[in-house]
């Protein structure tokens, strides 16, 4: 296998505890990136770039302004390409790649909540599941929130069609 690059784990977050947890997580691959993976990533970036104009639903893009793993200008390019009339970009100065695990995580989450509230006014029924403990986002709780939110979005889009995506469910049941 041809290898071309290895990511610097220090670039994921300014919090040393988050970086340490990342490096010691057995599910995180910390080796070098192969040429094949790099080629697939580039192909995916190209596909997203070419398809971005098809995005018409509301979108919020959050990006660390000091991200060393992803060029923050890519977030701006995506924002510029999206066709949605309701689009927001938030680039957080000084934050690295994992904006949800930076010390300013509460501000990031609050900004997302403020953006989502007009779209999903019943969001407070879900939001209480996202919490911070010892200045570190509880990932599983956050992921549960994301899964619930995705289900809610699917329900919301589905209810505007002849057959709802979740006919037996309503937002209060999540």
Secondary-structure class: alpha+beta
Work out the helicity level: 40-55%
Q: Taking Cα atoms only, what radius of gyration do you get, to the nearest Å? A: 18 Å
Task: Please tally the β strands and state the result.
Answer: 6
Number of helical segments with 4 or more residues: 6
Low-confidence stretches: 129-142, 159-174
Distance between the termini: 46 Å
Structure notes:
This protein is an alpha+beta fold. Helix content is 42%, strand content 12%. The protein is built from six helices and six strands; from the N terminus they run E-H-E-H-E-H-E-H-H-E-E-H. The longest helix has 21 residues. The protein is globular and about 45 Å long. The N and C termini lie far apart (46 Å). The C terminus is likely disordered.
List keywords for this structure.
174 residues; alpha+beta; two-stranded antiparallel sheet; 6 strands; 12% strand; globular
Q: Secondary-structure map with pairings?
A:
Blueprint: E1 3-5, H1 16-24, E2 33-34, H2 35-51, E3 59-64, H3 72-81, E4 87-92, H4 105-116, H5 124-127, E5 132-133, E6 136-137, H6 139-159
Parallel strand pairs: 3-4
Antiparallel strand pairs: 1-2, 5-6
Brief sketch in words of this structure:
It is built from six helices and six strands; from the N terminus they run βαβαβαβααββα.
């Amino acid at each position: 296998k041809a290898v071309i690059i290895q990511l610097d784990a220090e670039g994921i977050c300014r919090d040393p505890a988050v970086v340490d947890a990342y490096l010691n997580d057995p599910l995180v691959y910390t080796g070098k990136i192969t040429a094949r993976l790099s080629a697939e990533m580039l192909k995916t970036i190209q596909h997203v770039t070419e398809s971005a104009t098809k995005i018409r639903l509301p979108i919020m893009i959050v990006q660390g302004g000091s991200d060393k793993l992803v060029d923050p200008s890519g977030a701006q390019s995506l924002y510029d390409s999206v066709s949605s009339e309701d689009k927001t970009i938030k680039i957080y100065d000084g934050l690295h790649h994992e904006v949800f695990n930076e010390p300013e995580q509460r501000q990031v989450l609050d900004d997302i909540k403020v953006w989502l509230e007009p779209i999903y006014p019943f969001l407070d029924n879900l939001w209480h599941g996202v919490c911070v403990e010892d200045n570190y986002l509880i990932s599983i709780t956050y992921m549960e929130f994301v899964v619930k939110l995705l289900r809610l979005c699917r329900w919301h889009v589905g209810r505007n069609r002849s057959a709802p995506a979740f006919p037996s469910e309503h937002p209060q049941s999540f």
